[in-house]
Amino acid sequence: MAIQVGVNMEFIRCEDKSFAEGVARAAEIGYKYCEPLVHSGYELLSGGGYYHSFSMQNDPYEMKDILDQYGIKPTALSSHAPLMRPEIAIPYMEQAIRFAKVVGAPVLTSDEGIKPSWVPMEEVFDVMKYTLTRVCMIAERYGISIGIEPHQIITKTTEGLMRIATLVKSPMLRVNYDTGNAWLGGADPYQGLKTVGKLLVHMHAKDISIQQSDKERGVVTGTPVGCACGDGVVDWAKVIGILKDIGFDGALSVECGTPAQAERSLAHLTKLING
Q1: Does residue 33 sit in helix, strand or coil?
Q2: How far apart are CA 37 and CA 34, in angstroms?
Q3: How do residues 251-260 score in pLDDT, each as one tens digit?
Q4: Cα(107)–Cα(200) distance, rounded to whole angstroms?
Q5: Residue 14, class by beta-carbon neighbours within 10 Å (0-12 exposed, 13-18 middle, 19+ buried)?
Q6: Which fold has domain 3-274?
Q7: What is the distance between the alpha carbons of residues 165 and 173, in angstroms, rounded to a whole number?
Q8: Where do the domains of the chain lie?
Q9: What band does 275 get if pLDDT is binned at 50, 70 and 90?
Q10: Which long-range contacts (CB under 8 A, 24 or more apart) does 213-218 make?
């Protein structure tokens, strides 16, 4: 069993840097793994070098070359798609699966997305099952897992998360657990991890500051980034103990807001894993 510590590229967003500059900074801090963010089409900020997202209109070998240059491996592609919008999610995730195969990312991370106003609650699971059936057919062909994470109105509860993660009988449909989102949504992240168990394929290591927790817990379903791991409400020794108990062999992808937080997170998690 091996638990790796990587970093989600959101850590560089505060500096308005490109993907390549973010990877360089991650390597400088000491990370050997990262979680790139991809998007379809083109847009001004990443195209101009001011945002870390990487367009899938580019050759995936461009991303691979950047990662290889700095000795960093991808743990997953952050490729969130609205599962209740199959006309968007299916082509987007199919493209992301093929992209992930080239760059060597074994997982796509996603959540259910924001529920469209025109999809009644009694129909949401049927729509998502259709989307995931189509996507998992391609995922099985390429050997890429789909990690559903707690982030929106359904997955904020462990029950909702597990229902989506088991909608389709596919070995590629798994869970990307996010401790910070689970906490803010009102769930118990430790019990949530135990419930997910062997379905866990990837994890967002997100801590939440006491101030944010006091203000937003039970009010929101998630947050883009957290504070440094060890600075907030999450008991990381307990988390890592659970991961070892369930035999998790995968990555903790740190989701924080600054390079300084990324550095503290790496030191804190590495010490606990090796302790």
Answers
A1: strand
A2: 10
A3: 999 999 999 9
A4: 11
A5: middle
A6: TIM Barrel (3.20.20)
A7: 6
A8: 3-274
A9: confident
A10: 213/183, 213/184, 216/184, 217/183, 217/184, 217/186, 218/184, 218/185, 218/186
Identity (one letter) of the amino acid at 188? D
pTM greater than 0.85: yes
Per-residue pLDDT, averaged over 230-249, amounts to: 97
- Reference 39, options 74, 81, 8, 76; nearest CA is 81
Which residue is associated with the tokens 């367009």?
55
> What are residue 74's DSSP bridge partners?
34
- CA–CA separation, 217 vs 84, rounded Å? 25
d(CA 212, CA 209): 5
Going by their DSSP bridges, the two strands 77-78 and 73-74 should be labelled as unpaired
Model confidence over 92-109: pLDDT tens digits? 999 999 999 999 999 999
- Given a cut of 90, whether residue 1 has pLDDT beyond it is no
Residue carrying the six token digits 């290889």 = 68
